[in-house]
Amino acid sequence: MSAQASKKLLNVLKGNQEAVPPIWLMRQAGRYLPEYRALRAEKGGFLALAYDSDAATEITLQPIKRFGFDGAILFSDILVIPHTMGQDLWFETGEGPRLAPRLAESRLEEFVPAPERLAPVIDTVRKVSAALSAETTFLGFAGSPWTVATYMVHGQGSKDQAEARRMAHAEPERFAGLIEAIISATVDYLGNQIDAGVDAVQLFDSWAGSLSPAQFQKWVIAPNAEIVRRLKARNPNAVIIGFPKGAGGKLAAYAEGTGVDALGLDETVDPHWANRELPKGLPVQGNLDPLALIAGGQVLKEAADNILSAFADRPHIFNLGHGILPDTPIENVEMLLKLVRKG
User: Is 40 a catalytic residue?
Assistant: First the structure.
């Protein structure tokens, strides 16, 4: 059996069912793990870890060593793209990322690109690829253009992405130029990840749910479709997961319009509805509520069973509906693995 043939998760992404769904968890390398917290205390802040290829490699591998997930996800951040495009990036303790200068008050043309900032990330990909077993699928990722743009415009996360939405309405040509710049940088970045050894990539559109249907078509579906088109032209075997968080009833339009190979579902989506409404045979990923994982016990069992039954006849990767939370008990993750693997 070839190395690729033995990768259950990659097999599902390519449209095949597995008797036992493969499993990985978004943010599985992170603060809920004591070994991650120890390394962060030793090495410094989040960005220092992401740009230290040895540390990032160790962090990427930590949940694989502990739990034996079917997929490893690159330890990095979606905001390395604006960082390489010329914005300053830092993380405020307890408050999240900051970018400057904000595009609400400056222009993209004034930024000085710094492509060298991505070199350590690609080095991490090479090191992880060399260290993983033949059975583990290696996932790279990037932020989708709309979500990345919201951070670049506002300089940080926000509840309603009002500044980016205002710019998209008031200055559509300027905003389209920003989206195109992000598309170009993202295709190059993901292409380099694939060249360096990832098996598949995920596009995170964390703020997709804040847009009207027309704006969703313009700023979510169309840009992601363009990334898929360009990436597959550059890397014909590229396998791409789309994750438009908050898309809800627009998920089918996203799946059909973007051409992604698989679709990630957040926890607000009824899995039985998704199974009925999404294109037949499309692989799906998700969609356990991260808080159900924290609750554990019967709550976790019932939620996991509901998802597994909904997607019993569809290619399915078990995952959370969003990232694992820092206060998640290790024993609950172990319980989830047993529930999914019937162990």
Answer: yes
